[in-house]
From TrEMBL:
<protein>
    <submittedName>
        <fullName>SUMO-activating enzyme subunit 1</fullName>
    </submittedName>
</protein>
<dbReference type="GO" id="GO:0008641">
    <property type="term" value="F:ubiquitin-like modifier activating enzyme activity"/>
</dbReference>
<dbReference type="InterPro" id="IPR035985">
    <property type="entry name" value="Ubiquitin-activating_enz"/>
</dbReference>
Amino acid sequence: VCLTCCSRDVMVKIDQICHKNSVKFFTGDVFGYHGYMFADLGEHEFVEEKTKVAKVNPGVEDGPDTKKAKLDSSETTMVKKRVVFCQLKEALAVDWSGEKAKATSKRTTPDYFLLQ
């Protein structure tokens, strides 16, 4: 489900319905130069391709590059990952008065607070 130009209450209600029924939910909007996008994908599983790191034998090479791990682009491995997304209601209900939240607020985009 994709929503734009909806009120906050409508977005929260539809996200709760989607989350309960394991339906992926996206919402977003733009206000001049500012905009937002939110995705609730529930439990999302995906596969990520990782390049294997080749081990360097000590003593074979000299110099500062010897300690750096070298990537072998010919060998890759597939890693299965799982991410659990939060609901819109939870994302909007963050208590910003605590010490941990104050530290997080410095890394949070100002657009989040415009949405509030």
